[in-house]
Automatic annotation (TrEMBL):
Membrane disposition: Single-pass membrane protein
Keywords, comma-separated and alphabetical: Endoplasmic reticulum, Glycoprotein, GPI-anchor biosynthesis, Membrane, Transmembrane, Transmembrane helix
Alphabetized Pfam families for the sequence: PIG-X
Organism: Eudromia elegans
Subcellular location: Endoplasmic reticulum membrane
The protein's annotated pathway: Glycolipid biosynthesis; glycosylphosphatidylinositol-anchor biosynthesis
Name the UniProt record assigns to this protein: Phosphatidylinositol-glycan biosynthesis class X protein
Domain of life: Eukaryota
Length: 222
């Protein structure tokens, strides 16, 4: 049985956005208040909910998982990466965390997230998307933890590296450093719509003319 009381009192979650623009990295860190040695038979994960304005690319995640950079499950697993914000739905991501070598009681994980295209606005060049603090989960397939502070969760997933079948996950009581994280996403301005349309049309006509001229000059029509 693990020291659940210590987890209740000192579990702290921080999240941070790296880079700028549409393509960011969400860095998560949890300080459980329990030494990693006491969690050798357990797996720590974070379940985060992404609003419609943000998405994860399943193909990118699959590539990262093949190289052991990131381990995650996306719910639902079918993600329309081309959908704009106003046609998208919320996503849930179960992100498996790894021990942080710089902290004896810490676990970290990084999730690549991408901003969706939003409707143009009248006077703001950015929109704000709020990322809520994640839920911290623990599963111990070979060790039943005390449920004094860890409540059973409805997550159905395997303990990564521990088993290939779903185990009982527990939700850890914690206090987030910030209740939510704000992501700024660039958007277009409505007054630029006419200029963008004209420019796009002119570029399309110019490129088509160059291709047609090259085809007529160098093409073999015999």
């Amino acid at each position: 049985v693990l020291g659940a009381q210590a987890v209740c009192q000192s579990a702290v979650v921080t999240q941070q956005l790296l880079q700028e623009g549409f393509h960011r990295d969400l860095l998560l860190q949890v300080e459980l208040g329990v030494a990693k040695e006491d969690l050798r038979e357990c797996t720590v994960a974070a379940r985060t909910h992404l609003p419609p304005g943000v998405y994860v690319d399943p193909y990118e995640l699959a590539s990262l998982q093949r190289h052991n950079f990131t381990k995650a499950l996306v719910i639902p697993d079918a993600v329309d990466v081309e959908a704009p914000e106003y046609l998208a739905t919320e996503l849930a991501v179960l992100l498996y965390m790894t021990p942080d070598p710089r902290c004896s009681e810490c676990f970290t994980a990084t999730l690549p997230v991408h901003g969706r295209y939003h409707r143009p606005t009248a006077n703001n060049e950015t929109v704000l998307v709020a990322l809520k603090s994640p839920e911290i989960l623990i599963c111990c397939c070979d060790n039943r933890p005390s449920t004094e502070c860890w409540k059973p969760s409805d997550v159905e997933a395997a303990c990564l590296g521990r088993s290939s079948y779903p185990c009982q996950w527990y939700s850890v009581k914690h206090k987030p450093v910030n209740e939510e994280l704000i992501m700024q996403i660039p958007v277009g301005l409505r007054q630029h719509g006419f200029l963008v349309c004209i420019t796009t049309l002119l570029v399309t006509v110019l490129c088509s003319s160059v291709i047609l001229a090259a085809a007529c000059r160098y093409g073999d029509f015999s």
